[in-house]
Design brief:
heterodimer; A: two-stranded antiparallel sheet; two-stranded antiparallel ribbon; 19 helices; 4 strands; 58% helix; elongated; B: 161 residues; alpha+beta; four-stranded antiparallel beta sheet; 1 helix
Amino acid sequence: MRAILDWLDHRTGYRAVLHHLLEEPLPHGTGWAFTTGSVMILLLAVQFLTGVALAMYYVPTPLLAYDSVRFITDTLTLGWLLRGLHFWGASFIVVAAGIHMMRVFFYGSYKAPREITWLTGVVMFLLVLAFSLSGYLLPWDQKAYWATTVTINIAAGTPVLGEYVANVLRGGSHLGALTLGRWYTAHVLLLPASLIVFVLAHIALMRRHGISGPITPQHGPPVQFYPWHVIKDTLMMAAIFALLLTFAVKFPAHLDEIANPADAAYIPRPDWYFLSLFELLKYFPGPYEPVATMVIPGLVVGFLLALPFLDRGADRRPFSRSRLGLSITMIAIASAVLVLTGMGLADLPSKYDPNDWGPRAIAGHQLVTAADNKCATCHVGGGPAAELSITRITKDEEWLVAHMADPVAIAPGVRPASDPTPAPLLTRLQSQSVLAYLRRIRAGAVPPQVSDEALVAVNTFATSCAGCHKISGEGGENGPDLSDVGGRLDAAALKRIILEPTSEYPDTLMPSFAERLSERQLNALVQYLANRH
Amino acid sequence: MTETQPTDRAIGRRNFLVRAIVGLHATMGAILAFILGSTTLSPSFSGRDETWLQAIDLDALPENQPVPVTLRVSRSDGYSQVVDRTVVYLVRTGDQDVRALHSTCTHLGCRTSYDRKTKLILCPCHGGVFDTEGHVVSGPPPASLPSLPTRIEDGQVLVQV
């Protein structure tokens, strides 16, 4: 072994390189505070490696993006853990980068001659945020789609150039296939390439000027980087890695239902690292919006970039006279970000729960499992189409509704006048119920056991009410959401309204259902709605 | 002696740290390698669940004569789904017995066809010849045509694919 390594060293000189990398004398007193950079390297390495494995399965097109992420999460061995590491790794990086930056700031490590090291760091922080933003869209679930819609709309609010910027971000006037393509390319090609360049430059500059060391230089012999400081780096990296692994195992990455551009009622939120910006928007309504989206973030980034040039004194103590103003500004910025993020977190809408089966999804389940269901004519083992259990939703809602009404027409809507359209196999409301069901099972939920009375109720709701009312995210939008109507109205009031809507709401457009529902349907429906709160 | 002792201890401490560093990095590397290895390699070694498919009326099968039947097999294809077509030979071997043979030549995967005159299954690619039990009669195929489980239910032949 020794002989082989000697041979290799003679040919490559690797020992001298290793020696150069490891044998660095550090200032006496260099301690744990100087391990934050190593943690960044660890986390970036985890993101790179898990990212490569994810890219092996991920497909950047609206047709398959969601299903490929579903596949990674549900089917692939340890895929849930892979995605969990990448998902939490992203958050860890933002936090670790913030801590690293604060360490450098309060230790005054950005001062001459390390200004450029600091600038590369600020750029990398922005790159990390761009990574987070672009990665957030990729799963193509409801959360991803609507959060990105909001992000791009914020960009569209830029004075003068807004619409152009938004169109460049989207690759057109709508969020869709081209958006996903360019954000994916940015996420896996452009940003990693840029980041690698900056990481190398950052480390090379760090070596060139050496570690800044304790705030007030201490007397004593220098510390050899290897192994006396590397052990601290390693222990810190191992601790953070263990924490990351714990998060990935304990809180697996969430995946909403597949993105539904038709569902404008979804309440979007950006991921937590942009929540502070999102909250800030609330204080600058209407024409002042650019203050929150452009001016304030621009000032913060400008402050960070200008920092080493504003502070040219040699004193590194954070609260010395020459640095006091800068430190207070930095603390104010950090506190504002933390407080706004906290307010944003407190105001998060309740998380989507795929196991909350609304009436539509249950009715849809009934339709596709009924003995005489027509889907199984083709969607059956040995049939011309795959079973519904493994069929992916790769078309938009209108296509699917038309397909379910008239499965023979390959291109719905083009049947010529000479070939009369047959009576639809499923009505629009029924088709939408089946879709609700398919979305639920694609989101990994298991159909619930439902009593006979509840079945009557959900079928009644799906065929009579869902055109106008939503429950559990499924239904029309003309009427109010009835997901928790039982908390607002008791059974008697519900019954009165269904039978004679104008008795409660004189101006309502809702028709009376007295003639349309049987006694059993009415009672089951009232009972079902009264229990929803 | 008194002078060398602390140096020995320092060397011992240094060696311990080096081992700890290598050990911790190796552990983290092993955990990551295990996760990355599992996720990248597992699909290569996972099979498909087999299902029973209805193939043909038992009465439609003549005795001892292979009848090619096309079966549609839907399966998950990673994050997508496909419907494959598989051609199997069904050979009625008795009153309630049917043998099912794959129609794919075991040599290089060409589709074979049944020759009524010679009562042999022929491969068009390299001249492989099988009998109606799937055994190799002549040519390069290394193995018999694999057979598939069958069962009869209500006069229907079901094949497990």
